[in-house]
Design a protein that fits this description.
alpha+beta; seven-stranded mixed sheet; OB fold (Dihydrolipoamide Acetyltransferase, E2P); Elongation Factor Tu (Ef-tu), domain 3; six-stranded antiparallel β-barrel; 31 strands; elongated; 9 helices
Length: 679
């Protein structure tokens, strides 16, 4: 290609380039009459290679962050040089010959031909260095305490107590200790319910004791009835033997006497049995008297409770008429009065029943004493029979008849004893059922105690752990209703409605949501840096570097968890970061920006992002050989891409110079002039 500078007059001249370059120039007259050329603009679209007509297309630069700022004078000088020198460089590199004819109005026209010398393209370069590099993903999120507790009353009422700190009411930011009482509502009604439940339990346990005693007595009665049955069986057998003996030994008076003596012994046994019945009847009478005393004591207590309930109900009627309490409160004490009246009626019935048992016991005692008298009389009669048997043989026949009568009587007694056993068995089942019912009453009363205790606990707020008050929405004297807190409301509304929130400020975590394609690269344990909301814009600016980001971070931590699910709406992944340093700079609920290092290399070979170019999607850099003054185009293997640098895994060694400015005009082996070397 030939570049020709056309002739120009002393007053006006112009320069034009033939080929693919274009240029404009003007000739100004020098004060001393000399001519000089001023280049105004030149922009090559293509550069020739060794063969005419063959060109190299302009290279596509890799997208890069905003380069580092330089001084004003140096940058301006480089830019001016880059505008002026390409014209001369292009003429010298491609062997163009220009002929300039300068005409002077005061002298003959002279022509001169000059041959241009090669000049290197101006470039700026930086040395490749070994430095730590991180690849980041970041997102905005919120900081929260790992441990926090929403405290609320489950019982409604007037707030009667809030903890004092140094003589003043509790405030947000105050520290509290685990188990410390923070606030409570009016618990007088709950305490009364607990007292009543305990009294009911004591009464149920007393009833169980009575039922157990009754069961023991019934079991003793059953044993006695069974013994009576066995005894009657023996009596029958004895009477039958006596009959047979009387028939066989009718002539033998000795046998008759012995037979009569057996009757005497039997009579004595009956006396003892009758006396035992008397003792048993007396014991029953004493028990019945004790039951009467207990029933009267219960009646007196029920009457006292009735009077108390009547007074309480009358007082509530007055309060209701004055509008101090609600209808439901009045109905509560009206029901208590009705229950007390029913309890008095029940106690009176128990007294009547106990007195009836005393009368029945008196009747049984009288019957038992009569049995003793009858047994004694029978013994006397039997003795007379013995005497009669000794005196008369004929008495033996009478003894046989007596024995037969005794057999019949024993059979009757056996039937009565068996009936008594069956009756006692029924009483035993009833007594066992009474014990079971009493036990059920105890369990029910104890559950009432538990329920009342739980209700009492729900009327107070205690510190769940050592921490600080993050939110406080109540004051002493407020009337609290559990319905104020709606679980379906948004979180901000709940925070404003719940009585108080306690947090543990010793451990914080940051929650962010990353796009799904970035969330796949995040793993637990990766380092993370937290920038406060006020510094977030500066951290995301174009002049940010990894070092400046780390310095700007007010807290540090590591990735704690990565959700395996993707949110349906935002198509994002939730990531939680546990803070290890700088918790004192965070606030519960504060907005922050979190930067996560998804890839790191502490000893990476790195170069600025603006040193890389891509041709056919392959990354290259231009390495400056200062000895030859030329550049070498090298294909590299890229690694981690940081904020302002990229790692070079292979292709360039640390210390080599790579072009950062002017690389779009370069080809492999092109001569360059190093205008600026950035350290």
């Amino acid at each position: 290609m030939t570049n020709t500078i056309q002739s120009f007059s002393p007053q006006e001249s112009s320069i034009s380039l033939n080929g693919n370059g274009a240029g404009k120039g003007t000739r100004d007259r020098h004060p001393e009459g000399e001519a000089r050329v001023v280049v105004q603009e030149w922009e090559p679209e293509a550069v020739e290679t060794s063969a005419p007509g063959e060109t190299v297309p302009r290279e596509e630069e890799i997208p890069a962050e905003k380069p580092k700022k330089r001084g004003k004078s140096g940058g301006s000088w480089v830019k001016k040089t880059l505008l002026v020198l390409p014209l001369l460089g292009a003429i010298a590199a491609f062997g163009g010959v220009g002929v300039m004819r300068v005409r002077n109005a005061q002298a003959p026209v002279q022509e001169a031909q000059q041959t241009a010398q090669p000049v290197g393209l101006p470039v700026a370069a930086v040395p490749v260095e070994v430095s730590p590099i991180q690849e980041w993903v970041f997102a905005d999120g919120s900081a929260t305490a790992v441990r926090s507790k929403h405290l609320t009353f489950e019982e409604g009422g007037t707030i009667t107590y809030i903890k004092e700190v140094n003589g003043r009411d509790l405030r947000e930011g105050d520290r509290v200790s685990e188990g410390e009482l923070l606030a409570k509502v009016d618990d007088r009604r709950l305490n009364a319910d607990l007292t009543q439940a305990r009294a009911t339990t004591a009464e149920a346990e007393k009833q169980k004791s009575v039922a157990i005693a009754n069961l023991s007595q019934v079991r003793a009665n059953r044993a006695q009835a069974q013994a009576s049955v066995e005894q009657n069986y023996a009596s029958i057998e004895q009477a039958k033997a006596k009959v047979e003996q009387a028939r066989a030994n009718r002539a033998q008076i000795e046998a008759k006497v012995e037979q009569a003596q057996v009757g005497v012994e039997q009579a004595e046994v009956k006396i003892e049995q009758a006396q035992a019945n008397v003792a048993q009847a007396r014991a029953k009478r004493e028990q019945a008297i004790s039951q009467v005393a207990q029933a009267k004591a219960n009646l007196e207590k029920a009457i006292a409770d009735l009077e108390l309930a009547r007074k309480e109900q009358q007082r509530r009627v007055t309060l209701y008429q004055e509008g101090a309490i609600s209808q439901s409160d009045l109905d509560l004490y009206t029901n208590k009065l009705q229950n007390a009246e029913a309890a008095v009626a029940t106690a009176r019935s128990q007294v009547s029943a106990a007195e009836s048992e005393v009368r029945a016991a008196d009747s049984q005692l009288l019957a038992a004493e009569k049995e003793v008298d009858a047994a004694k009389r029978q013994a006397i009669a039997t003795q007379k029979d013995v005497q009669a048997a000794q005196s008369q043989l004929a008495a033996a026949t009478q003894d046989i008849e007596v024995a037969k009568s005794q057999v019949k009587a024993a059979n009757s007694q056996l039937s009565a004893a068996e009936s008594q056993v069956r009756a006692v068995e029924g009483n035993l089942r009833a007594a066992e059922a009474q014990v079971e019912a009493a036990q059920a009453g105890i369990e029910s009363a104890r559950s009432g105690i538990t329920r009342a205790s739980v209700n009492l606990e729900d009327s107070a707020l205690y510190a769940p752990f050592d921490g600080i008050i993050a939110y406080l929405n109540i004051t002493e004297g407020d009337y609290w209703m559990p319905q104020r807190v709606q679980p379906s409301a948004d979180y901000q509304t709940i925070v404003e409605q719940v009585p108080m929130i306690v947090i543990d400020p010793s451990e914080f975590e940051v929650t962010v949501e990353l796009p799904a394609f970035e969330g796949e690269r995040v793993q637990p344990g990766q380092r993370a840096f937290v920038v406060l909301e006020g510094d977030a814009s500066a951290a995301a600016g174009g002049d940010t570097t990894s070092d400046s980001l780390i310095q700007r971070a007010k807290a540090r931590g590591r990735v704690f968890s990565v959700s395996p699910s993707v949110t349906p709406g935002g198509r994002s992944v939730e990531v939680k970061i546990r803070i290890t340093d700088g918790t004192e700079n965070l606030r519960h609920g504060g907005r922050v920006s979190a930067w996560i290092a998804v890839a790191e290399n502490e000893n990476a070979t790195v170069a600025p992002l603006n040193a890389f170019v891509f041709r056919d999607r392959n990354p290259y850099v231009f390495v400056v050989n200062e000895a030859t003054g030329k550049v070498e185009k090298r294909e590299i293997t890229p690694g981690i891409e940081g904020i302002s640098q990229r790692e070079i895994v292979a292709g360039v060694k640390p210390g080599e110079l790579v072009v950062t400015e002017g690389k779009n005009r370069l080809v492999d082996g092109a001569p360059v002039q190093l205008i600026e070397r950035v350290q």
